[in-house]
Design a protein that fits this description.
By secondary structure, the chain is an alpha/beta fold. Helices cover 32% and strands 22% of the residues. The protein has helices at 17-28, 42-52, 68-78, 92-98, 114-128, 168-176, 197-207, 261-271, 289-297, 315-321, 334-342, and strands at residues 8-13, 33-39, 56-60, 83-87, 103-106, 158-164, 186-190, 211-214, 225-228, 234-240, 243-249, 275-280, 301-305, 327-329. The strands form 3 sheets. It has a 7-stranded parallel sheet, with helices on both faces. A 5-stranded parallel sheet has the order 2-1-3-4-5, sandwiched between helices. Helix 6 (168-176) links the parallel strand 6 and strand 7. Helix 9 (289-297) crosses helix 10 (315-321). It is elongated, with a radius of gyration of 20 Å. It starts with 7 loop residues before the first strand and ends with a helix.
């Protein structure tokens, strides 16, 4: 972890002079950050990195001559430096995250406030400074078929809630692609900028065995479906007799986030009367930890991602430390732990 008096060295890579100026001036005002240099394209960046020695790089996703995706493939094997992507509304951001980028922010348009953008970017840069960098990208292929769980009645009365933040887009995919098409109903909160959750849900839907989609207010939780909280809305579970639905509504940030993992997990603890599972994964801070503790107290089986496989061991660490987690597992083994637990149900 970084000490308060040691500044994080940041390099800004963007082909736009305006974008470089906005980012360097904005981040340069932050007391924990130091801008050590800029680059106008990936090749310029690669030439400057040995002298500048940045701790974190911010990079545009679309640049002339070489995309951010190709930049990561060239950069990370040689210099395993955490990269935060600065992206317009572009599906390629998820391929770049798969290639090893730590996180991303949405590039502001003419209607957005630069201060909000810079605040979000600064927080992500600080989180990235202590992140693990994956240097080899996994293959982005559709999941292999997984043996179905079958029609055991007990499996119709289970809800699985999963929460993640920094590093979570790929970690959640690693879990979901190891689960069968008839998995009990799932609800997922992943911290993500506005506009990207629908694209992310569609990506998961293409690559996983179950159906995955962005949640809408009133959607029913059912087997074979995973609902992803929409960006900038709080998703909660609501019970009506034996039927469970989700609400997706505006509201205050909870634990600093909207959507918030705590908002989802607290609603699970308060509303769910059937069997439930809570899973907390990689992310900065503590969102979801207290909510998972309440789920465990309400009878849920709880899983936390382990330190070794977390990009940022923040949320799952806090959950572990306060007693919210029953079992820790690597990103690759969480699905197996979950399936073992589900197989105990009759």
């Amino acid at each position: 972890m970084w000490s308060a008096n040691k500044k994080i060295r940041v390099m800004v890579v963007d082909d736009s002079v305006l974008a470089r100026t906005v980012i360097t001036q904005g981040l340069g005002k932050h007391p924990r950050l130091e801008i050590v240099g800029t680059a106008f394209n990936p090749r310029d960046a690669m030439a400057k990195i040995p002298q500048l020695r940045p701790d974190v790089i911010t990079s545009d996703i679309e640049m002339p001559g070489m995309s951010g995706m190709d930049f990561l493939k060239m950069l990370l094997p040689k210099y395993p430096i955490p990269v935060i992507l600065v992206s317009s509304l572009n599906l390629r951001v998820f391929d770049a995250l798969s290639a090893g980028a730590v996180d991303f922010v949405r590039k502001p348009d003419s209607n957005q406030n630069n201060d909000v953008f810079i605040d979000s970017l600064a927080r992500k840069v600080i989180a990235a400074s202590s992140a693990k960098v994956r240097q080899t990208a996994p293959s982005i292929t559709k999941a292999n078929p997984v043996a179905p769980l079958g029609n055991r009645p007990g499996l119709n009365n289970v809800i699985i809630a999963l929460g993640a933040s920094t590093g979570g887009t790929e970690a959640t995919l690693e879990v979901l692609k190891r689960l069968p098409a008839d998995i009990p109903g799932m609800v997922i909160t992943q911290h993500m900028p506005t506009g990207f959750t629908q694209m992310y849900a569609e990506r998961l839907n293409r690559l996983c065995n179950m159906e995955v989609r962005e949640a809408k207010n009133g959607d029913e939780i059912r087997r074979g479906l995973a609902l992803l909280a929409p960006a900038d809305l709080q998703m909660r579970v609501v019970r009506s007799g034996v039927r469970y639905t989700v609400t997706c509504t505006p509201g205050e940030k909870i634990s600093g986030h909207r959507p918030s993992v705590d908002a989802l997990f607290y609603s699970m603890a308060e509303q769910v009367r059937c069997k439930m599972v809570g899973i907390i994964m990689t992310g900065m801070g503590r969102d979801g930890a207290e909510g998972l503790l309440q789920m465990r107290k309400a009878g849920a089986f709880t899983i936390g991602q382990d330190k070794e496989s977390s990009v940022v061991y923040g949320m799952p660490m806090v959950a572990q430390n306060i007693g919210a987690v029953q079992i820790q597992a690597s990103c690759e083994n969480i699905a197996a732990v979950l399936l073992r637990q589900l197989n105990t149900l009759q």
